[in-house]
């Protein structure tokens, strides 16, 4: 059976893929969205304890596609970012001046999904195929198609791979990828704690990796809450995950000191391995890679999802502009423009993140002292501090119009 032909065939309906579908729809661009997951499972309580820092630029995107009102009530603003090395003297305090706004917003991934799924289900320009497996992908001179496990054939002008780090579409296309493993694992958990976080995000660096405390909304009973992202050596990960709640909290408390007072409880723990990957090209004939299918970075700076949302804004900008000139979404000229725009920018962000990861991972007192000296220098240099804050907001560089206020 053949379904209607649409402009885009988006393979992957996660946060980046579904944001692309909605953003495209707001510009009159139709799409098929295919995802193997069951939305009910993704929205079930306790499915995913992960949270995401949404930069100012990414928030502009959500505002421009009409999601801000629905999401705002679930946002915990990031008023300040405190960075230090092993809780020792010599740190950076990134705090905007009054009137400059926050450095971003924290959301539970579940709330982002809920808003995206709700909007997508009401958008006629999106044909959403959930619980679906792709059994065949074809790209030719006149269009693309994806055959589903039930025999349904979805056709369009451009195929978009948004399946994440293990993208089968990218692998099938044979796109060359640089990759390496950090031999580290990120442990994710929700914490409740004694003191309010005052909307401060903490990034505490240890030789094994960063230890981040990200401000979340208080619970309805007034309990203060933060999201923990703790990087550990891969060889220590299994043992850390198996610790009792009491022992786990003791280890957490040791690393965070008294910044949030006593930690009173920990939610369900999850983890994922950390690595770097970046494709040499993010386009092919009638194919575009976005999000983690194109680039995977260390969560040290919280820019992974924001990098994917920047892909979304740029791709829709390029396609909508081309369609106004009479070009189809899969036109080679448009794909070349997207490649030139996003290929270098995403690669530079990925390299900078990798460099930061390696710099703060150098062990020893001398390395720690050098890092703290450098951070003290940044703390005393307003121009540098402002540049770093603009990077955190995602407003440096060539910003797609959809990510502008």
TrEMBL record:
Pathway: Cofactor biosynthesis; ubiquinone biosynthesis. The keyword Glycoprotein does not apply. The keyword Glycosyltransferase does not apply. SUPFAM superfamilies: FAD/NAD(P)-binding domain. One of its GO terms (molecular function) is oxidoreductase activity, acting on paired donors, with incorporation or reduction of molecular oxygen. Residues 8-339 form the FAD-binding domain. Its cofactor is FAD. Signal peptide: none annotated. GO terms for biological process: ubiquinone biosynthetic process. It holds the Pfam family FAD_binding_3. InterPro entries: FAD-bd, FAD/NAD-bd_sf, Ubi_Hdrlase_CS, UbiH/COQ6, UbiH/COQ6_monooxygenase. Keywords: FAD, Flavoprotein, Monooxygenase, Oxidoreductase, Ubiquinone. Belongs to the UbiH/COQ6 family. NCBIfam families: Ubi-OHases. PANTHER family: UBIQUINONE BIOSYNTHESIS MONOOXYGENASE COQ6, MITOCHONDRIAL. This is UbiH/UbiF/VisC/COQ6 family ubiquinone biosynthesis hydroxylase.
């Amino acid at each position: 059976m053949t379904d209607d032909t649409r402009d885009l065939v988006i393979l992957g309906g996660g946060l980046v893929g579904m944001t692309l579908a909605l953003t495209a729809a707001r510009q009159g661009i139709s799409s098929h969205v295919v995802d193997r997951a069951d939305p009910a499972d993704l929205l079930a309580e306790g499915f995913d304890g992960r949270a995401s820092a949404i930069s100012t630029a990414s928030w502009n995107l959500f505002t421009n596609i009409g999601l801000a009102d629905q999401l705002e009530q679930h946002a915990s603003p990031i008023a300040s970012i405190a960075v230090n090395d092993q809780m020792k003297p010599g740190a950076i305090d990134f705090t905007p001046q009054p009137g400059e706004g926050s450095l971003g917003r924290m959301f539970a991934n579940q709330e982002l999904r809920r808003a995206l799924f709700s909007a997508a289900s009401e958008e006629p320009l999106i044909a959403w195929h959930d619980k679906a497996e792709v059994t065949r992908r074809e790209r030719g001179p006149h269009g693309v198609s994806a055959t589903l496990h039930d025999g349904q054939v979805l056709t369009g002008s451009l195929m978009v791979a948004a399946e994440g780090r293990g993208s089968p579409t990218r692998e099938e296309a044979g796109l060359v990828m640089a990759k390496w493993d950090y031999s580290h694992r990120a442990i994710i958990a929700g914490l409740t704690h004694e003191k309010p976080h005052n909307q401060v995000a903490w990034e505490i660096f240890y030789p094994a990796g960063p230890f981040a405390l990200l401000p979340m909304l208080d619970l309805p009973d007034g309990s203060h809450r933060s999201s923990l992202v703790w990087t550990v050596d891969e060889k220590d990960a299994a043992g850390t995950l198996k610790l009792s709640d009491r022992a786990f909290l003791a280890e957490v408390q040791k690393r965070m000191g008294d910044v949030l007072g006593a930690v009173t409880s920990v939610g369900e723990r999850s983890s994922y391995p950390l690595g770097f990957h970046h494709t040499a090209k993010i386009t092919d004939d009638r194919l575009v890679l976005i999000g983690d299918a194109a680039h995977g970075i260390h969560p040290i700076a919280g820019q992974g999802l924001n990098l994917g949302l920047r892909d979304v804004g740029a791709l829709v900008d390029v396609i909508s502009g081309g369609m106004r000139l009479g070009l189809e979404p899969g036109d080679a000229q448009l794909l070349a423009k997207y490649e030139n725009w996003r290929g270098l920018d995403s690669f530079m962000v990925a390299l900078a993140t990798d460099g930061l990861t390696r710099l703060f991972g150098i062990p020893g007192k001398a390395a720690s002292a050098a890092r703290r000296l450098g951070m003290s220098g940044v703390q005393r240099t307003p121009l540098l501090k402002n540049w770093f804050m603009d990077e955190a907001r995602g407003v440096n560089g060539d910003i797609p119009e959809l990510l502008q206020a």
